[in-house]
Q: What sequence folds into this?
């Protein structure tokens, strides 16, 4: 008999954290689940640890594969998952003890009124303990959910969410892009579902934050250009998301400079301008001001970047502009 929930965990060189992650799931008070460990070509002891856990617990299935990135690992998990619902867990994060029990209770209530349920992510055990009790959700229309993701107001992560399997398994994570693949998957899922999304304030997922996060490792113009192209292909013809898509593209274009607190080279400026010039409904101040200042005086541009060219500044001008 197939389990209610499939938990997909992509793993790469996480010998330091994987046991804590697995123990947090195995100690759950709810038991109708399977764990799919996707070892993405680890070259430390991660694979050995995964196999040991699988030998000791029949709920765990291990798949060893050649290194291909987190998207390819998640896609393998999706193909092999047998549960009615799917959860994605990163291998260095943990679930709070009652997480699956709360999820199961909510699944029983919603029936087919929703296809994805969203919870909050915590960054400390104190946060989780304070917000474990079940509460009433905020129901967000799927169109507003898409706009919130594009404006970076709602979580783009697949973690701390539970997806209906019959839709989740029809969509793949894009293995060709290195940043933003989570957002693309979420957007594709929401477009396929077209149902409102319940948001619970329960913090049932603890995320470990690393200084060398993937967002910084791959924060360059070309990786974000690939993300922008995916967004345009997915939503570019929909008038409903015109401003939100423009905002997302601007942020993605500027993200390598903002994230790394650097001033771009002249060549990078030219590429960034090229990425922005064909976007509709962007006030001229956002098109050129910061990048042109860089060409004239990099010191002044640095001050401008730190003080004014922030997400809130972009949002203010874009969404208050008469375009």
A:
């Amino acid at each position: 008999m197939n389990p209610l929930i499939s938990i997909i965990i992509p793993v790469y060189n996480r010998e330091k954290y994987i046991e804590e992650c697995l123990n947090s799931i195995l100690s759950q008070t709810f038991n109708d689940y399977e764990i799919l460990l996707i070892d993405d070509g680890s070259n430390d002891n991660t694979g050995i640890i995964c196999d040991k856990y699988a030998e000791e617990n029949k709920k765990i299935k291990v798949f060893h594969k050649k290194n291909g990135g987190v998207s390819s690992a998640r896609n393998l998990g999706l193909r092999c998952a047998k549960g009615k619902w799917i959860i994605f867990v990163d291998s260095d994060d943990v679930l709070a003890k009652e997480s699956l029990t709360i999820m199961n209770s909510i699944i029983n209530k919603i029936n087919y009124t929703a296809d994805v349920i969203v919870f909050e992510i915590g960054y400390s055990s104190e946060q989780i303990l304070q917000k474990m009790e079940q509460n009433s959700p905020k129901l967000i229309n799927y169109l507003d959910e898409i706009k919130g993701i594009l404006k970076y107001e709602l979580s783009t992560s697949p973690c701390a969410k539970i997806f209906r399997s019959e839709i989740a398994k029809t969509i793949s994570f894009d293995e060709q892009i290195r940043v933003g693949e989570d957002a693309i998957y979420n957007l594709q899922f929401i477009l396929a579902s077209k149902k409102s999304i319940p948001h619970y304030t329960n913090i049932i997922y603890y995320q470990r934050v690393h200084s060398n996060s993937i967002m910084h490792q791959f924060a360059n113009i070309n990786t974000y250009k690939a993300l922008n192209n995916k967004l345009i292909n997915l939503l570019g013809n929909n008038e409903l998301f015109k401003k939100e898509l423009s905002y997302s593209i601007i942020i993605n274009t500027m993200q390598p400079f903002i994230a790394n607190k650097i001033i771009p080279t002249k060549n990078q400026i030219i590429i960034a301008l090229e990425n922005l010039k064909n976007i509709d409904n962007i006030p001229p101040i956002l098109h050129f001001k910061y990048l042109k200042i860089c060409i004239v005086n990099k010191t002044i541009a640095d001050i401008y970047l730190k003080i004014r060219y922030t997400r809130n500044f972009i949002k203010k001008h874009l969404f208050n502009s008469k375009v």
